[in-house]
Write a structure and sequence with these properties.
heterodimer; A: 467 residues; alpha/beta; TIM Barrel; three-stranded antiparallel β-sheet; 41% helix; B: 366 residues; four-stranded mixed β-sheet; 14 strands; 22% strand
């Protein structure tokens, strides 16, 4: 095909000079250099037959005869993708207490001391809570207990579980407790046996960084979390425990230690991202680590992990995998931050210790710090919904027509976080050229194209899709 | 032609001069006798019966079951079209088609055959299966009135037989028809098998030998998918399109909704494929990498991808798990060399129609 029409494309030059192109169908192709972009799309004088075939198959160019159908195919793919983001299930987060035994420097929820009163959701509220959940969402329910430290309110969790099981049936829900694990004991482990309950905990990049930021009076948070992960692993099973890593300035050299720690614990998954600028972290910890710093760390980390995989040790880094799945239009890549319209409200909801309902975890963080009442969308004790502001936020999170996103090559894979932008820019869109959110996700997408240039690394990532 | 796994055609002298479908019974059965088809009772003693035609025929008896459906051609030939013990059952509802695929295994004829739809509806209702029955042609959706009427009849009998309809999808470019079809068809489990042979009209229209076919099929796939009609996407690799196999599947899974599975079908050397064999058939060894790439797309999109009609010794070992034993028993065979192959029991074998069966039996190291 030498006579062809171009379909609309977006493009971005990578550091190595290659040029990524994409379209509304969210298919991607990497051209050798900017000149080949000009040849193919500006001058229309590309003569490389294989390239033209590939561009045609990926909906970048078309013959005259197929033009109309190619437009239909493109718009169909576009609607399919939006539909996927609109119909993913909703995560329901519950904060039974804001009290915490840790006093982490970067605490994003602005926790309070463990001995304070007035920061707990009362057990007497459980019937209203369950009633509220079953009204706003269909089974199967995905529930996450957040904190504070939820294990300080374990009675609440137990009572909730028992009543919720009666209400919706055991097969219809799954609970994850986000905890530092410092307070887990034998009675908790025994209670969890045979129940739909798992744990998500934090391991930061190396002992030094972990104990410096995840502060316990006993100064042994790092040792404690490893011991308790092992305990859960052996008593309840490997699938019952997952980890999240928050990277701070002090962890930038800890990539190998982080991998070693996970491997020593027999974990086969990890989730690593930089500290985000909410709560206590907004002024200091988030400012201390630039996305550039983080990416230097992250590239070393991923290189180690991929090489572990190549030498036969399975280990998946889920932050990378989610970005990879988004580039591939995989149906299972429903990550709240990488959705457009955003996951806010439509794919997540958070019930605070006050009974107030928020559209996301970040929304309650911002509310706690700045007290923006319009972020409260309701309360578990009544059916009134205040969605006016939230629907505005959602509308502005549709990155298809947002300045800085609309012409970005990664628009179809990326998402938007209206709450982050609201906090940092005073409005939900923000200036993407200064947005940490934008810089982070763009860097990860760029990094993936660097990585998969090497077929052996691409094979590892493709292998992760099995999971 | 080598021996097939299940013979399906028999000559029965007593049936000379009788046309159309009949239901075969092995004993009197009050429930089955209320179904719409005429009955044929096969039994030892040829006692004359006033209501049911009764014959004695050991061969037909051997290869049929109580309740099977036969189709009589008026010259004493009975073909068992729906058989309880078959590995797959398919009914032909028309011989007409708007595509003229170079590899068509059932070359179309432009004849008025709407009676076939009536035969099929009666047969399905009488057979009363809970297993899937295939509806094939010609193009089953060519006569839109006929297919809608076919479903109307089935629904009136409150029939719930799951159906798999093999269509070129062109009819679905008409969104109103798509809506009506969905309304009529989705009262049961259905799946539409729609082939897409290329990511462009050039190659697709060449292979189906019909200008405008690709554009229609693309619109059809979009409409049917958007309406929530479950679609099995089919691709047949040939010399003309083998190098875009994975691109076709990638495009389909990126763009269309409701794709339930993808089937890569090896050519069958029947019908027009015989005369075009040299121009079309490519040994799988020449496109192993494309097959591999295509099968890997299953993980990425969360859709099952299968290889149909590939004898295991024609594909690399990594792809065995994608290969299905797909050939219908009445045309399925294994050449003698397969006897000693260690993986024969996992293999789908060959079409009995194929001229030169290339076999590399996998041996044990002795």
């Amino acid at each position: 095909m030498t006579n062809y029409k171009s379909l609309p494309i977006k493009f971005r030059e990578l550091k190595d000079g290659r040029t990524v192109i994409s379209n509304l169908a969210n298919t991607y192709h990497v051209l050798d250099n900017i000149q080949s972009l000009r040849d193919a799309f500006e001058l229309g004088q590309c003569t490389d037959k294989n390239l033209l075939n590939e561009l045609e198959q990926k909906l970048f160019i078309t013959s005259d005869a197929d033009f109309e159908s190619k437009v239909h195919l493109t718009t169909s793919a576009f609607s399919k993708r939006i539909n996927k983001d609109l119909t993913s299930p909703r995560l329901i987060m519950i904060v039974p207490t804001l009290r915490c035994d840790h006093h982490c420097s970067y605490c994003q929820v602005s926790r309070v001391n463990a001995d304070l009163s007035g920061f707990d959701l009362q057990s007497s509220q459980i019937p209203s809570l369950i009633n509220y959940i079953t009204k706003i969402e269909k089974p199967p329910y995905k529930i996450e207990f957040q904190g504070g430290e939820p294990l300080l309110a374990f009675d609440f969790i137990q009572t909730f579980y028992e009543q919720f099981e009666i209400e919706v049936g055991k097969e219809n829900f799954n609970i994850v407790i986000a905890t530092s694990l410092s307070l887990i004991d034998e009675s908790i482990i025994n209670w969890c046996r045979g129940k739909n309950v798992g744990f998500s905990t934090s391991i930061d990049a190396g002992k030094k960084a972990h104990n410096k930021h995840r502060k316990l009076i006993t100064k042994d948070s790092f040792e404690l979390v490893q011991k308790n992960i092992n305990w859960i692993h052996h008593e309840l099973g490997r699938e019952k425990i997952g980890t999240v890593t928050t990277v701070t300035r002090d962890g930038l050299e800890g990539y190998d230690e982080l991998v070693d720690t996970h491997l020593a614990l027999g974990l086969i998954g990890m989730f690593v991202r930089p500290v985000s600028s909410y709560g206590f972290a907004e002024e200091k910890q988030a400012k201390d680590i630039s996305i550039i710093d983080f990416m230097v760390f992250y590239k070393k980390l991923i290189s180690r992990i991929l090489n572990e995989n190549l030498s036969g040790t399975p280990l998946i880094e889920h932050f990378l995998l989610i970005h990879y799945k988004r580039l591939l239009n995989s149906p299972s890549a429903a990550y709240i931050d990488l959705m457009a319209p955003a996951g806010y409200l439509k794919n997540s909801i958070l019930i605070d210790y006050t009974g107030n309902v928020f559209g996301s975890d970040e929304a309650r963080m911002v509310y706690r710090k700045y007290g923006a009442d319009e972020l409260i969308i309701g309360h578990i004790n009544n059916t009134e919904l205040n969605l006016e502001h939230s629907t505005q936020l959602l509308a502005h999170s549709f990155n298809f027509d947002v300045p800085g996103c609309s012409d970005c090559v990664y628009q179809g894979s990326c998402g938007s976080d209206p709450i982050y932008h609201l906090q940092d820019f005073g409005e939900p869109i923000g200036d993407k050229s200064y947005s940490r959110f934008c810089e982070l996700h763009k860097s990860i997408f760029d990094f993936i194209f660097e990585l998969i240039r090497d077929q052996k690394y691409k094979n590892v990532l493709d292998g992760w899709l099995n999971d | 032609m080598t021996e097939v796994a299940r013979p399906d055609s028999f000559y029965v002298e007593e049936l000379d001069g009788v046309f159309g479908p009949i239901q075969i019974l092995k004993y009197r059965d009050a429930i089955k006798e209320t179904s719409p088809l005429p009955k044929l009772l096969i039994c030892e003693s040829k006692t004359p019966d006033s209501t049911i035609k009764t014959i004695r025929n050991p061969l037909l008896d051997k290869w049929t079951n109580h309740g099977d459906i036969g189709l009589l051609n008026g010259r004493g030939q009975v073909r068992v079209v729906l058989c309880c013990s078959a590995n797959a059952n398919t009914l032909l509802v028309t011989e007409r088609c708007d595509n003229l695929c170079l590899f068509c295994s059932q070359p179309p004829r432009d004849v008025d055959d709407t009676v076939l739809f009536a035969y099929a509806a009666q047969s399905i209702v009488s057979f009363g299966s809970s297993d899937v029955i295939g509806i094939s042609g010609g193009e089953p959706l060519l006569d839109k009135k006929a297919i809608l009427n076919f479903f109307k009849i089935l629904n009136e009998f409150n029939d719930k037989t799951p159906l798999h309809i093999l269509s070129n999808g062109r009819a679905f470019k008409d969104i109103n028809f798509t809506e009506n079809f969905k309304e009529a068809a989705l009262k049961r489990k259905i799946e539409i098998g729609i082939p897409l042979y290329s990511a462009s009209s050039r190659t697709h229209d060449y292979l189906v030998n019909s200008k405008g076919a690709w554009n229609d099929t693309i619109k059809g796939l979009i409409n049917a998918g958007n309406k929530g009609i479950p679609i099995e996407l089919r691709v047949i690799p040939t010399k003309a399109n083998f190098n875009e196999l994975s691109s076709i599947v990638e495009m389909a899974l990126t763009c269309f909704n409701s794709i339930t599975r993808v089937s890569i079908m090896n050519l069958e050397q029947t019908g027009w494929a015989k005369k075009n064999w040299k121009n079309l058939y490519l040994k799988p060894e020449f496109y192993h990498d494309e097959l591999q790439k295509t099968c890997l797309l299953g993980n990425r999109f969360g859709v099952e991808i299968s290889l149909f009609n590939y004898p295991l010794c024609h594909i690399p070992e990594e792809l065995y798990k994608f290969a299905k034993k797909s050939i219908s028993d009445w045309k399925n065979t294994f050449p003698p060399e397969c006897e000693y192959c260690t993986i024969k029991s996992d293999c789908g074998g060959f079409f009995s129609s194929i001229k030169h069966m290339e076999v590399t039996p996998k041996g044990r190291i002795l």
